């Protein structure tokens, strides 16, 4: 894509509307992340579906770290991500054959169905069916929305526009924490309200599908050149788009030569972005962020906060999460991807080690933290969440969406989404058991992963700020000291 050409684009009301409506896919995902942990801690919910956990909670003094350790309760959270893992590959095919906009429409429809069934659940199996439908919606949305945002963004704003997805994820988490705080006193059906309100962001996304255009790349890839050119003029706000249009057509012509995009992921041009996409998703989960976001109220109760205090603390961390994401929107196209990732590794490492140290010394299997130490832990959790929110959170989605060549873009991004969902489900399924077995040392476990992440960035992750998405091979991979070895025979 020509930098000079794109710099002439105008930021119109229409294109901003496209960005915002598409980003509601992130709000949908974030709301679910935030809502499940709060609902899991509500007594009315536990009494109805997980009475054994409720009984254990009544005798919480037996062991602070193990009162919520229940595989079925964890399945309530993790089933969504297993469903999203599988559905992301179907979403990849839908994205390629039908286009970005219809796939986003399907994501919202599945999510609304999940919200309705979850809120109406009378049996545990209904609850799991609802979670699975939520998961299909998340799989389709997370596959399509970051690609959509990357493909419609002008090059000089590509990072910031893509991070709108993560911003809306954080806003969704924050709203979910507020909803849980409000519904925790609505007996006996507060949990139904929390789960049912998940339909609202999905409905906004559904409405948005009637406003946004499909991306020029998707239209041209499917043989709709005239519509693609018209869409390009509309999102750029100018008539002279010939240079960019020809570049997209050339990339699509090259992509059409590829009959099996998943098979072509093992070719040299796709190997570096595939490796990086997969490991970014693994590392994103092994920062421990979703352990905190899923189970923030549960985690704070473990530290000795009462139920309302735990939910309020989760609201505070959610607010920090939203605010810090704005830092990333401002800085990603100025400072670049690598600096944000490396700075965050340092800040997250210090925060995790400090939390682990305080809890290992002061929070035993019985008893609670005193008020001062509990407040310090909340501050440390906030500094940790803050650094994640301007780095590994948004960049874990941005970098894979901008580095694959056109011919393997949807297939490669499907691997990124499915890897994220796989490891999110593993963390969701295992965290409460890990907390029970490892106790405070779980924070040292995540700290060790943060060190590995930093080394990965230093040696294997190149800077992609300002590089046209169709020039990554020539401008990035063939010049990188490690990745260039893949191209020595070309």
Automatic annotation (TrEMBL):
Domain of life (superkingdom): Eukaryota
Localization (cell):
Membrane
Keyword Transport present in the record's keywords: the answer is: yes
Q: Name one GO cellular component term.
A: membrane
Q: Principal place where this protein is found?
A: membrane
Q: Which UniProt keywords apply?
A: Membrane, Sugar transport, Symport, Transmembrane, Transmembrane helix, Transport
UniProt similarity note: Belongs to the major facilitator superfamily. Sugar transporter (TC 2.A.1.1) family. Belongs to the major facilitator superfamily. Phosphate:H(+) symporter (TC 2.A.1.9) family.
The protein here is known as: Sugar transport protein 8-like
The record lists the organism as: Nicotiana sylvestris
């Amino acid at each position: 894509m020509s930098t000079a050409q794109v710099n002439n684009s105008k930021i119109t009301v229409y294109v901003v509307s496209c960005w915002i409506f598409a980003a509601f896919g992130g709000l949908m995902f974030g709301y679910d992340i935030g809502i499940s942990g709060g609902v899991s801690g509500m007594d009315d919910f536990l009494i109805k579906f997980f009475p054994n956990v409720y009984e254990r909670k009544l005798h919480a003094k037996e062991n602070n770290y193990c009162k919520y350790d229940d595989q079925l309760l964890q399945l309530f959270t993790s089933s969504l991500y297993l469903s999203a893992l599988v559905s992301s590959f179907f979403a990849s095919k839908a994205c390629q054959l039908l286009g970005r906009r219809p796939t986003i429409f399907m994501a919202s429809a599945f999510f609304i169905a999940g919200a309705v069934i979850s809120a109406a659940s009378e049996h545990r199996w209904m609850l799991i069916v609802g979670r699975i439908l939520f998961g299909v919606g998340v799989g389709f949305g997370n596959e399509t929305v970051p690609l959509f945002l990357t493909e419609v963004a002008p090059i000089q704003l590509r990072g910031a526009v893509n991070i709108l997805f993560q911003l809306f994820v954080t806003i969704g988490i924050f709203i979910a924490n507020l909803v849980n705080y409000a519904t925790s006193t609505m007996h006996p059906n507060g949990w139904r309200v929390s789960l049912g309100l998940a339909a609202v962001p999905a409905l906004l996304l559904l409405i948005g599908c009637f406003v946004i255009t499909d991306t020029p790349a998707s239209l041209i890839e499917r043989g709709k050149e005239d519509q693609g050119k018209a869409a390009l003029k509309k999102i750029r706000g100018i008539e002279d788009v010939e240079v960019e249009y020809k570049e997209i057509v050339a990339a699509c012509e090259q992509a059409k030569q590829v009959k099996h995009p998943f098979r072509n992921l093992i070719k040299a041009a796709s190997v570096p972005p595939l490796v990086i996409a997969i490991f970014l998703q693994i590392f994103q989960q092994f920062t421990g962020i979703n352990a905190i976001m899923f189970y923030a109220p549960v985690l704070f109760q473990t530290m000795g906060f009462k139920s309302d205090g735990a939910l309020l603390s989760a609201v505070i961390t959610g607010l920090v999460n939203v605010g810090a994401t704005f830092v990333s929107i401002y800085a990603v196209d100025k400072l670049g991807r690598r600096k944000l990732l490396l700075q965050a590794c340092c800040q997250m490492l210090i925060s995790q080690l400090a939390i682990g140290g305080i809890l290992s010394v002061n929070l035993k299997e019985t008893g609670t933290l005193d008020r001062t130490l509990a407040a310090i832990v909340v501050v440390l959790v906030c500094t940790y969440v803050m650094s994640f929110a301007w780095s590994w959170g948004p960049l874990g989605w941005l970098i894979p969406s901008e580095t694959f060549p056109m011919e393997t873009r949807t297939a490669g991004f499907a691997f990124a989404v499915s890897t994220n969902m796989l490891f999110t489900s593993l963390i969701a399924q295992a965290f409460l058991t890990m907390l029970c077995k490892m106790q405070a040392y779980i924070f040292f476990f995540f700290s060790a992963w943060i060190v590995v992440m930093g080394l990965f960035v230093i040696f294997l992750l190149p800077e992609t700020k300002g590089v046209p998405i169709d020039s990554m091979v020539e401008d990035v991979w063939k010049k990188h000291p490690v990745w260039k070895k893949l191209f020595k025979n070309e």
